[in-house]
Design brief:
Blueprint: E1 7-11, H1 17-29, E2 33-35, H2 37-40, H3 47-56, E3 60-65, H4 75-87, E4 97-101, H5 110-113, E5 118-119, H6 126-137, E6 150-151, H7 153-163, E7 181-186, E8 189-194, E9 199-202, H8 214-224, H9 238-242, E10 266-272, E11 277-282, E12 287-292, E13 303-305
Parallel strand pairs: 1-2, 1-3, 3-4, 4-5, 6-10
Antiparallel strand pairs: 7-8, 8-9, 9-13, 10-11, 11-12
Helix pairs in contact: 3-4
Length: 311
C-alpha cells in the first residue's frame, strides 16, 4: 500500500498570486496534494468554511510572505491566525507552518518569528528554496533544474557531483540515481515516465540530426502535433539529460533498456558561458561535452514535466 500524500495548504495575498501559482504548479509536479483557493474551490462552495476546513485538515501550511502581504488587512491574516491555532494541536517537535519569503520583508507576527523561514528570492535562488520546501513536505523527492542556463565546465563538474551523476570522464566513481521507469504508449507514441524525477521522456531520439537553432523548430512542431497528447515538450537541460546516464553500460549504452537503442549525441538547452556553444550528451560514450551551435550531427530527445496520464 502506497504512503498517503501529505495535504498542503498554500496561503498568499492576492498581490502575490503569480508566485503562488508558480509554487503550486511546482509542488503539483511532484505529485503533492496542494490546496490553493483558485484551483480547489468549486462553484457554490461556502468558501470561508472550505478554507477553514482545508487548513484544519492539512499536514503543512505554507504562508507566502512579502512586503505586499505582511502588513495587509484581509483574509490572508485570518488564514494565518487559523493556522496558528491549529499549530497548538501539533507536538512541538513537528513542523506545520512553513514561512516562505518572496522578498526581503520583515516578519511582524510574533509567533511566526519563532519559525525558520525559506527564501524564494532572488530569482536564481528559487530552485534552492523549492528544494528546501520539498525536504520537509516530501523527503526524498529529487528536484532537477528545467530552466536553461549558461554553464562553465566547472559548473558542470559541480552539478554532476551534487546529483551523483555518472560521467566517464568527469565523475566516473558515482553510482547515478535510482530510477523508477514506466514505459507507455500514449496515442500511438512511446514515452518513458520516471517516477523518481517526475519527468516524461520520448523513448526514441529524433530521426533527423540538426544544428542547435533547428531544435526550436523541431520542438515547436512536436508540440503542435501534441505528441503523446501533450503540448509542453521541451529540450532537456543538461541536468535533466544527465539524470538518465547509467554508470554501467547495458548492451553498449549507458542508459536504461526502456529507451531505444539509437543513442546518438543529443542536444540540451544549456549553453556554454560566453561562447556560441551548447552542452550535449552521449549515452554511447557515457559523457557530456559541448559543441558549436552549427554542429549538424546532433539529435533530440524531448522531455516534459508531469505525471503519467495513467496515474
Amino acid at each position: 500500500m502506497s504512503k498517503q500524500k501529505p495535504k498542503i495548504f498554500l496561503s498568499y495575498a492576492k498581490e502575490d498570486m503569480g508566485m503562488a501559482k508558480q509554487l503550486y504548479n511546482n509542488l503539483k509536479r511532484y505529485g503533492l496534494d496542494v490546496w490553493l483557493d483558485t484551483e480547489s474551490l468549486l462553484p457554490g462552495d461556502r468558501w470561508k468554511d472550505k478554507i477553514q476546513d482545508a487548513i484544519e485538515n492539512s499536514n503543512y501550511f505554507i504562508t507566502l510572505l512579502s512586503t505586499r502581504s505582511v502588513n495587509k488587512k484581509g483574509f490572508v491574516q485570518k488564514e494565518l491566525k487559523t493556522a496558528l491555532e491549529v499549530l497548538d494541536l501539533f507536538p512541538i517537535s513537528e513542523r506545520f507552518i512553513l514561512p516562505v519569503r518572496l522578498d526581503d520583508c520583515e516578519i511582524c507576527e510574533i509567533k511566526l518569528k519563532e519559525h525558520h523561514w525559506v527564501d524564494l528570492f532572488p530569482e536564481d535562488e528559487y530552485q534552492n528554496g523549492l528544494r528546501k520546501i520539498l525536504k520537509v513536505v516530501s523527503p526524498g523527492t529529487f528536484i532537477i533544474r528545467h530552466e536553461p542556463k549558461e554553464l562553465s565546465s566547472a559548473d558542470v563538474n559541480e552539478m554532476l557531483k551534487m546529483h551523483s551523476y555518472y560521467d566517464r570522464n568527469r565523475n566516473p566513481d558515482c553510482k547515478g540515481i535510482e530510477h523508477n521507469y514506466k514505459l507507455q504508449e500514449l496515442l500511438g507514441n512511446k514515452v518513458v515516465f520516471d517516477e523518481a524525477t517526475g519527468l516524461m521522456w520520448q523513448q526514441s531520439i529524433s530521426q533527423k540530426e540538426m544544428g542547435f537553432e533547428g531544435t526550436k523548430k523541431w520542438i515547436t512542431e512536436l508540440n503542435r502535433k501534441r505528441f503523446a497528447g501533450f503540448n509542453d515538450w521541451r529540450l532537456p537541460t543538461l541536468e535533466e539529460a544527465m539524470s538518465l546516464m547509467e554508470p554501467k553500460s547495458k548492451k553498449g549504452f549507458h542508459i536504461d533498456s526502456n529507451f531505444d537503442r539509437k543513442q546518438n549525441w543529443i542536444w540540451t538547452s544549456d549553453i556554454v558561458k560566453s561562447e556560441l556553444r551548447a552542452w550535449v550528451v552521449s549515452y554511447y560514450l557515457g559523457i557530456c561535452s559541448w559543441t558549436s551551435f552549427d554542429d549538424y550531427n546532433r539529435c533530440i530527445r524531448a522531455v516534459r514535466s508531469g505525471q503519467s496520464s495513467s496515474d
